[in-house]
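Deliverable D5.2: sample structural annotation.
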Amino acid sequence: MPSASTLTGVIANRDFEMSQQEFETLDLETLVIQDQKPVLRVMLNRPKLANAMNLKMVNELMAVMEKVENENYRVLIISGGHGNFCAEIGRASCRERV
């Protein structure tokens, strides 16, 4: 079992474990991050909804991209977890305001 200071997940059907240090200030609910500076992998993680985007996911992606821009990453890889990239922008999200 991973310690509290690590995240685990699946990217391209491969398990990974990573330190949470770089992203401990971000409270991510819809993304899983794998930090291998200068590469950052971001996996969309809403499996019950086939990774459909909602306002929360968009805001989290924007926060991650801002952090990437400010912290010397050279590559950002965005993938979908659980067999889907992104099914749609959730209909309920269309009614939310940015």
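Annotation notes: Strands lie at 6-11, 14-19, 31-36, 39-44, 75-80. The radius of gyration is 13 Å.
The annotation will be released with the project's public dataset once the embargo ends.
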